Fold this protein.
Amino acid sequence: MEVYLDNAATTPIAPEVVDAMMPFLKSHFGNPSSTHHYGRKTKSAIETSRKTIAKLLNCSPMEIFFTSGGTEADNMAITGAILQLGVKHIISSEMEHHAVLHSLDFCEKQYGVKVSKVRLDHMGHVDLDHLKELINSTEEKTLVSLMHANNEVGTMIDIHEIGRICKDNGAYFHSDTVQTMGHYTMDLAEMPVDFITGAAHKFHGPKGIGFLFVRKGIHVDGLIHGGAQERSVRAGTENLYGIVGMAKALELCYEDMDGHIAHVQGLKDYMKSKLQLSIPGVEVNGCPVRSLYTVLNVKLPKTQNAGMLLFLLDIDGIACSSGSACSSGSSKVSHVLEALEVDSLSPSIRFSFSRYTTKEEIDYAVERLSHHMILEEEIA
Ligand SMILES: Cc1ncc(COP(=O)(O)O)c(C=O)c1O
């Protein structure tokens, strides 16, 4: 049996998305910058896609900038805040994705900005008093960059509350929403954010395409310089089929958001209780309540073959992860679990679900994992 439980790393592309992209792969090949009818056709598809995304998020199409994915969008917000908005102080957290953390390391060295990390508790909740204290610790222009939901453990911030704190205390607010885009309804008219990000491959769209939302009235330049694409902010011939596919993928998510949430949350709850019944001592990493419904990260009892579990599950046909995609495959402890002080001697596994995941797949995964844990006990 083939079971894919690594949807936080990437999701399978929806067949409807492939259908929407196909004409642009097969026949409509014009360069969107060309003024003849080939170009006008593809330019129009890009602008229609931008309008679709903007309508779903209740913002203006002018506030959406297409990028190569979540990483570029995060980098663009951070670099733009420094270079165009004059930000000198950035507040973030130790559990951000490397797309933010490594960008901050770079900007600290390259531009001499000060980077502060807000205190987190063991579940990954932000200490809001500390956040206010950090914002008010300097007169310099400040950017707060905190992810909406963590990709490894699923803990979510209260994006409205943090946005209000930033607004009241005069800081810009960027939230990496890569894991929540397409999984929650977002109304940008009332969500107090200056920048948010999306990556199509996390919501059944194609890889290599994403976007940055930039609140009206704020101007940031992109990282890629050249032609006049994306209103001269982000150069390079557009990823036409990616853009069309991303808009279709987001549209599909919004078509049945409630049904999707109910289905996936049900699977997560089911897997959690099944694991707790089958493997005594299992604990949930991150917050059990304010948590992304697509992610279940569990700490298992100590075993001799902790390092082999993912491999054994893979042989059984089950794909899951020990952390984020970029750290799986390496033996390094995840920076997120480290930040939350999760015991690194016990194996932690991240299971992540999608609209295509079934109960039977969960049953199989729990059965195989329990089998490997029991075998381990017997050997010991
Ligand atoms: C929270 C978060 N931010 C950013 C990214 C990077 O997105 P992309 O792979 O589209 O560059 C990811 C992908 O793993 C993610 O989970």
